[in-house]
């Protein structure tokens, strides 16, 4: 289905002077303006199918719809395209509404295609009586082959009486009805294959999440969308340009059903490298437990990317830079994460962590006899980040990778403390650094040292951390048409590293963003509960990282 999609004024409508003055005709080159739009008379709609959570592709459609509604002081409808009971649920409806709220989308009303089921059925029956639609019991695979070859179905010229008889079988969900579908009689020789007698209704006995078992037949998106758009007074249907060939079908259905014509405004779909946006394919990952749910941080869903640390402000800016251009682009995630970094770097607090495995103790022989505490800023350039308590002690921990890079008698800088000189390096027979001994040299200049190291005091107040990095779910930038995504699955998409963190991280809340100095940006997914349970921090890409998992 189209992630989003728009009614001409009635023929002969007279444009008055003030209305002409209210028209927006300028275009900034991105195809953003609506053709002949009039301030105060624009109605758009965002129409997701409740068969999964909103993903980053839907975001572009939602944001663009809201932008046009606000620009032209118009109306925005959120309509759930709930025409396939086999895939849909109330849970998806609730989470989509949650996602829309997260995006800050302000709408005027929520509707459902299922609200129009009686009207749609009546229209379908009128088409049958008028000879503009027919019931076909051709097997689906054969029907597809005939459509591709432009071959008319043997059922195409059945009488209206015969079609109505089979329509009633479909409506009852009988054995015969289950073998049938309703097709529009548009023409099987069209060069545009979307016009080759498309399916309007299918028989489906599965209960619907809103209307239960009231119906055994359901309209296809292709039939319901243009009709309901017109019935709801939509003036501009925003549709991604991948549906361009189906625009003629959209307008033909409006013509045959006698509803108002709705103007279509196209935009390019937001595609990202190494990313699947098909909800059917995303559902496969959930059902096969390749991810932890629709909000998994490896998923391109709104809840997934937010959980990984993407800000809505960055997402909106990224979408805004592309505008409503019809050019199809495969975007790099790095561009989005770079925008995000600019949003968080200036405000997120700084903390310290040391990787637990192989950490090395540095003993400062002239260090403080008793540990002492100083209150320092959590972000030197942002007072709003608050303050933190830093403990200074004679024995401190540093990362093993840092310990390996130190030479005897080398002067180093201990961040937020000062300089020190390493006098002894103790190693085992394999050359692994076991411990270091040094002395403080606080009068030394940080400008002269090569190594600026993060550290933690040896104290029971340190907290356990689990640092989690994620990779793409597939190993290919773009899955080509006809290619099976199962052939390019990434088997290694999650890496967890145990670490120790400064005691101030006990105060982190779920959703807080922070920077672990010299390690990158993180989002708190599981805050501190008790010492035996680690704080879980999800790594936030910064636009420079590349395939970090090995």
The number of helices is: 13
Largest sheet properties: 7 strands, mixed
Query: How big is the Rg?
Result: 31 Å
**Main sheet strand line-up:** 14-27-28-29-25-26-15
How much strand content do the residues show? 15-25%
Gross morphology = elongated
Q: Using the coordinates shown, work out and report the CATH topology of the domain at 31-270.
A: Rossmann fold
Q: So, the CATH homologous superfamily of the domain at 31-270?
A: HUPs
Structural class: alpha/beta
CATH C-level class of the domain at 31-270 is Alpha Beta
Which segments are poorly predicted (pLDDT under 50) over 5 or more consecutive residues? 1-31
- Mean of pLDDT: 92
Family: Belongs to the class-I aminoacyl-tRNA synthetase family. Glutamate--tRNA ligase type 2 subfamily.
Organism: Rhododendron simsii
Domain Glutamyl/glutaminyl-tRNA synthetase class Ib anti-codon binding: 348-436
EC number: 6.1.1.17
Give your account of this protein's structure.
The protein is of the alpha/beta class. Among the domains are: 31-270, HUPs (Rossmann fold); 353-457, Ribosomal Protein L25, Chain P. 25% of the residues lie in helices and 25% in strands. The chain has 13 helices and 29 strands. The strands form 8 sheets. The protein has a 7-stranded mixed beta sheet with strand order 14-27-28-29-25-26-15, covered by helices on one side. Helix 7 (221-231) packs across helix 8 (247-257) and helix 11 packs across helix 12 (333-345).
